């Protein structure tokens, strides 16, 4: 009787175990049982062949329509070509070798159904259309069965189809899983009994049976439901424990101080806070007043006014005698934050200077490209405590950066930083933890917030400040060339009115090691490469002759980048030709228009982010999405969606639907994503929410899972997996 942690070689023998370990990284009975079929087929049903993508390892069920041998003039002398169909499309299988030495000829006559596995490629004859093929596929004939009464049952039988893998025989997994299931003794169920009862879940053994050898679709459904819950629940228990542990840590309380810098700042703010900013501000102020560290995620669409919220939190901490660090993902952003914070604070940031307020503090900037002298001065101010606010890039994370009393870490644009980096900053506080506020402008769908960011509390700035002008977005499509001509005219008109324009390209171009922020088209490999700045520049110089044109991209020296940004911000440039380096946070209220070239090469959320750079003042914004994509294509649907709404949450849901899970979870979450097999963030919000509630309650009642040893073991396995994933990344 095999338990889940039994090594596979004991059950399957060394040879098979080795193959499974090498090909699929499966080592224990549990590993194998969690290697679920990718899909299921009826015998009576064929796999849609049109959905297969080049390069994909697939297993398909199809019917042979044609068998043809051809003698070749070159080695190996003979090819057997078998055409299979799903009823509409066709796929060609080719077997190379010497004539007569083949079983395929005998096994695969027209009318035969079979499973075929291999890597999809496109064969392009010198003339004619490319044809999908599987070269030297593995196959397994699905036996026909005569007899009337057996026929229906035969057609209904469910055949699991496992992801095919190079070097693995088509039947290996199915057979191995069968052997393992026959002798399985899963032990006590790790799920708490009340949970099982409440949801009417089936037992674990039954669930493994149901997912690997379902006798009916109902059985499969029950199995999936149970196993999906397990994934969601174990993950949520891990997160609940993490939240609990974090909440139990000591931190210095920084309650509001009357008549301090924060009050001074509020008094000099040129606008009223939105009700959202006030409400989130109250939540944060409350957190900061506690003796345990805040861990809060602040979401707000581009332009929602997160910086003010963060700055007010920082001032509360400075009022409480502490320091705040603001971590920005790029030099451009760090510089900009530094400028706008010192600007907003005015005399409140001029401690020790002429005209500085009595209780003033100091704001300093730390970036990687600073000269040694400036750097030394900054480090000194941070370490002595003279600087209340330290703004910087990841240079802030380095070991030699010391703070006198770091009370708050603000991380801007979370998605560029991993959990590990957040931890690096936290460790700069001796004998306690700083409060942490994470800000993101990429609206995060609830399910993602509850998993990836599940160890954080969440606040949302749902509305933009009043008086913010509209951004109108239009697609400039290939079938309307006049629109493109009009686009250049519009740029000149904007500049003529003293306004400024961004033009964004997906690449720098004419350069090695390009900024690879762009979604590669997966459907058609033959497309030209996306437009680069350097290719467009000469054309623009002609088209926009007379306008002052600046260029900004990631390969420029940081000083140069900052100089260009400064000139643009100061209105000394009419047009800024840039890559996505301007994506996050850049704030130039006089910029009113943006033209995005090859817009279909960007993701939905990315377009939304980019577009957020215009319409930031009271002037209405215009965004033009230039594309070559044909009408009615997927790419055009995406662009139309972006043009149709400025609701970032709506667009992020759309984006999520179009991406694969791994992309959503991001690189630093790789370990975690590998533990999500059935659960999808797109469709399982209910499961995730319920699991979160129940996991939180369970951890409250039994923090160390002393009463739930099975669950504790599952959790240990999950964390192990996560750690492995993390280690592989670093
Ligand atoms: P984001 O959330 O994208 O970081 P910012 O904090 O950069 O947004 O704010 C965008 C702009 O809106 C800034 O110029 C900021 O000064 C301004 N702003 C912030 N809050 C308000 C408000 N309540 N009323 C008017 N303008 C505001
Ligand atoms: Mg911002």
From TrEMBL:
TM regions (residue ranges): none
GO molecular-function terms, A-Z: helicase activity
Pfam families, per the entry: DEAD, Helicase_C, RecG_dom3_C, RecG_wedge
Ranges for domain Helicase ATP-binding: 287-461
Keywords per UniProt: ATP-binding, DNA damage, DNA repair, DNA-binding, Helicase, Hydrolase, Nucleotide-binding
CDD domains: DEXHc_RecG, RecG_wedge_OBF
Domain Helicase C-terminal: from-to ranges: 483-657
Alphabetized SUPFAM superfamilies for the sequence: Nucleic acid-binding proteins (SSF50249), P-loop containing nucleoside triphosphate hydrolases (SSF52540)
Protein name, as recorded: Probable DNA 3'-5' helicase RecG
Taxonomic lineage: Bacteria, Bacillati, Actinomycetota, Actinomycetes, Streptosporangiales
Gene label: recG
């Amino acid at each position: 009787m095999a338990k889940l942690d039994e090594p596979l070689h004991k059950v399957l023998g060394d040879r098979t175990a080795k193959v499974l370990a090498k090909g699929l990284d499966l080592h224990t009975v549990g590993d194998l049982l969690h290697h679920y079929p990718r899909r299921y087929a009826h015998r009576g049903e064929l796999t849609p062949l049109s959905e297969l993508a080049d390069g994909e390892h697939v297993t398909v069920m199809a019917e042979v329509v044609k068998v043809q041998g051809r003698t070749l003039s070159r080695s190996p002398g003979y090819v057997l070509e078998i055409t299979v169909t799903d009823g509409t499309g066709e796929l060609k299988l080719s077997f190379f070798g010497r004539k007569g030495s083949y079983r395929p000829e005998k096994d695969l006559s027209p009318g035969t159904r079979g499973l075929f596995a291999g890597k999809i490629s496109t064969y392009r004859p010198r003339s004619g259309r490319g044809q999908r093929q599987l070269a030297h596929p593995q196959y397994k004939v699905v036996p026909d069965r005569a007899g009337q009464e057996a026929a229906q049952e035969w057609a209904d039988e469910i055949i699991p189809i496992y992801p095919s893998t190079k070097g693995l025989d088509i039947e290996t997994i199915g057979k191995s899983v069968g052997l393992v299931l026959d002798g399985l003794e899963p032990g006590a169920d790790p799920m708490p009994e009340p949970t099982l009862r409440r949801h009417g879940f089936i037992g674990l053994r039954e669930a493994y049976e149901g997912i690997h050898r379902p006798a009916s679709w109902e059985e499969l459904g029950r199995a999936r439901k149970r196993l999906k819950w397990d994934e969601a629940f174990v993950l949520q228990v891990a997160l609940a424990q993490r939240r609990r542990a974090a909440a139990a840590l000591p931190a210095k309380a920084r309650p509001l101080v009357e008549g301090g810098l924060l009050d001074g700042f509020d008094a000099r703010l040129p606008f009223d806070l939105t009700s959202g900013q006030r409400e989130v501000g109250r939540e944060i102020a409350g957190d900061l007043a506690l003796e345990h560290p805040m861990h809060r995620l602040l979401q707000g669409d581009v332009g929602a006014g997160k910086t003010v919220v963060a700055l007010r939190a920082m001032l509360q901490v400075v009022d409480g005698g502490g320091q705040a660090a603001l971590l920005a993902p790029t030099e451009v952003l760090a510089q900009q934050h530094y400028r706008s914070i010192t600007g907003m604070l005015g005399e409140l940031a001029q401690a020790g200077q002429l005209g500085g307020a009595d209780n003033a503090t100091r704001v300093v900037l730390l970036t990687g490209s600073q000269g040694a002298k400036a750097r030394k001065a900054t480090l000194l101010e941070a370490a002595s405590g003279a600087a209340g606010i330290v703004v910087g890039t990841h240079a802030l994370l380095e070991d030699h950066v010391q703070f006198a009393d770091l009370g708050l870490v603000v991380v801007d644009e979370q998605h560029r930083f991993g959990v590990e980096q957040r931890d690096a900053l936290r460790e700069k506080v001796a004998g306690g933890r700083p409060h942490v506020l994470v800000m993101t402008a990429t609206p995060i769908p609830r399910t993602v917030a509850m998993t990836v960011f599940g160890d954080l509390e969440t606040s949302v700035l749902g509305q933009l400040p009043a008086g913010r002008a509209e951004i109108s977005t239009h697609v400039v499509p290939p079938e309307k060339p006049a629109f493109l001509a009009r686009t250049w005219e519009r740029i000149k008109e904007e500049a003529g009115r003293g306004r400024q324009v961004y033009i964004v390209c997906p690449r720098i171009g004419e350069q090695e090691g390009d900024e690879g922020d762009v979604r590669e088209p997966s459907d058609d490999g033959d497309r030209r490469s996306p437009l680069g700045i350097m290719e467009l520049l000469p054309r623009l110089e002609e088209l926009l002759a007379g306008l002052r044109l600046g260029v900004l991209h990631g390969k420029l020296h940081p000083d140069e980048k900052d100089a260009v940004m400064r000139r643009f911000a100061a209105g000394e440039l009419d047009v800024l030709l840039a890559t996505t380096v301007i994506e996050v946070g850049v704030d130039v209220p006089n910029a009113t228009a943006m033209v995005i070239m090859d817009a279909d090469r960007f993701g939905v959320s990315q377009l939304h982010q980019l577009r957020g750079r215009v319409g930031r003042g009271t002037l209405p914004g215009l965004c033009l999405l230039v594309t070559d994509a044909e009408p009615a294509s997927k790419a055009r649907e995406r662009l139309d969606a972006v043009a149709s709404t400025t609701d970032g949450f709506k667009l992020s849901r759309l984006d999520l639907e179009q991406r694969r899970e791994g992309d959503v979870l991001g690189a630093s979450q790789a370990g975690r994503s590998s533990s999500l097999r059935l659960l999808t963030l797109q469709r399982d919000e209910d499961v995730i929410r319920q699991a979160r509630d129940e996991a939180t309650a369970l951890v409250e009642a039994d923090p160390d899972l002393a009463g739930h040893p099975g669950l504790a073991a599952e959790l240990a396995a999950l964390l192990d997996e996560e750690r492995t994933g993390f280690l592989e990344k670093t």
